[in-house]
Structures are given as C-alpha cells and as structure tokens.
Design a protein that fits this description.
The protein is of the alpha/beta class. It has seven helices and twelve strands.
Length: 242
C-alpha cells in the first residue's frame, strides 16, 4: 500500500504549507526535484505538447491521473463535460477543492463509462507499468471509447539516457531488440519518490517509444498516429478505433 506522499505534497501546497519540493529518482538516474508549483500550473505555463492535447479534446472527457486538476479545470472552463480520476486520495481532494466538478478516487482499470476523449498526460504510458501490461490497458481504453472517440497520450523515448545522441541512430535498434528478447524493455524503470524525509514505495513506470506504442495499438485493433514531438524526445499520440 502506498503512503500517498504525492497527495500529501499536493495538500500541503493547496493549504499554504509549501516549504519543500518532491524528490524523484529512478534506477538509472540520480535525484531530481519536482517543484510543487509546477503541479499547479496554468495553461500558459504548460508545455506546448500539453497545450496541443487540450486543444484536441472533444465531447465528453476522461482525465486520467488528474493530479491537482490542471487539465480538467481548463477544459471545464471551456465548457466541456469532464470526469477526472486519480488513485491518490490527496490529489482527488485537492482537485475537488480547486473546483473540479466530477472527480473519483479510482484507477483507470476500474473505470467503466464511455468517453469521446480519454486524456493521459505527463507520460501517460507510465500507468501501464510494464511492456507486458500494455495490451491489457489498451484493450481497456478501447472498451471505454465511443465509436468516434480518441485517446490522447504522451510519453518519451528514453534511449537518450542509455546512449549519446551520436550513438542513438546506429545503436538503439540493436539495443531495443536485445533488451526486448530478454523481456527487459529499456523504458521500464523503477520510480522512487520522497517528500519531507518520507519515501514512497517504489513503483514500476513505463516510458514507451512511439514505434512500440504504435505496434501495440495495431495488435489490439487500434490506430495510433503521432500528433507532435515535444522538446526533449517526448511525443503526443492520438489513438482511435479503426
């Protein structure tokens, strides 16, 4: 069971008790700071990739892993009907306090309603956890889509964390095949988080390159197109029914 450190940090910031930031790290990277103000960012403070995703939203919307509710609030203000979900109790409490109208404490796999747009941002593929879990999640997303619905999801190809830029073009495909053949996709990371001296239980977090996401979508009868590239090996994809 998680300690919901993320939710505690959001609650502190919401309640005016901001004194330090979240610290994150992975099994292949050193500690990094996740500033709490960034988790409460406005539309103008969002990366272009996030802004593009919000502008592509249509119809009824499911905001998965809503956090403090930034995306849901912007969409609500534009007149959309939005349902927000998060597995963090603290996050759902903060989002509700900030004005998100329809929010539930649940995981994506617990959702059963249908939507025209399903939004998974801030490395949306992370919740898939492992490459082996991707088909299960994609099939569930497929079941939640209306006939003309879409999934807007972002992720990053983290090959750059293993190679220099000069080496990626020549070596990455070999490396991908090598790791995949041993069941160890290079985008599967152990993700750690701490806040105010308290450390969360590690979780598996998946960064998925576009080619692998596209192949996985095709395998379960979904169409996947890259919408745009971000500023640092990240991308936004749009997944639809055929």
């Amino acid at each position: 069971m998680t300690k919901d450190i993320f939710g505690k940090a959001l609650l502190d910031y919401q309640n005016g008790n901001y004194s330090e930031d979240i610290i994150t790290w992975t099994n292949i990277s050193n500690e990094d700071i996740l500033p709490l103000p960034y988790l409460f960012r406005s539309y103008s403070e969002m990366p272009k990739l996030e802004q593009n995703a919000l502008n592509l939203c249509k119809g009824t919307i499911l905001d998965v892993g809503c956090g403090a509710g930034n995306h849901s609030l912007w969409l609500q203000n534009k007149g959309f009907k939005v349902k927000a979900i998060d597995s963090s109790n603290g996050a759902t409490e903060v989002a509700r306090e900030r004005g998100v109208l329809h929010i539930e404490l649940k995981s994506l796999l617990e959702e059963t309603a249908s939507f025209d747009t399903i939004l998974l941002l801030m490395n949306g593929t992370g919740i898939f956890q492992e490459l082996s879990q991707v088909p299960k999640y994609l099939n569930h997303l497929k079941a939640l889509l209306t006939p003309n619905g879409q999934v807007l999801i972002d992720s990053s190809d983290i090959a750059y964390m293993y190679f220099s830029e000069d080496d990626i073009e020549t070596e990455i495909e070999i490396e991908k095949l090598t790791q995949l053949s041993h069941g160890n996709y290079y985008g599967e990371l152990n993700y750690y988080l701490s806040y105010k001296g308290e450390e969360e239980a590690p979780m598996t977090w998946l960064y998925l390159d576009f080619e692998t996401l596209n192949a996985a979508c095709q395998a379960v009868g979904l169409q996947c197109k890259k919408v745009t590239n971000g500023e640092h090996y990240d991308y936004l994809a749009r997944i639809t029914l055929f």
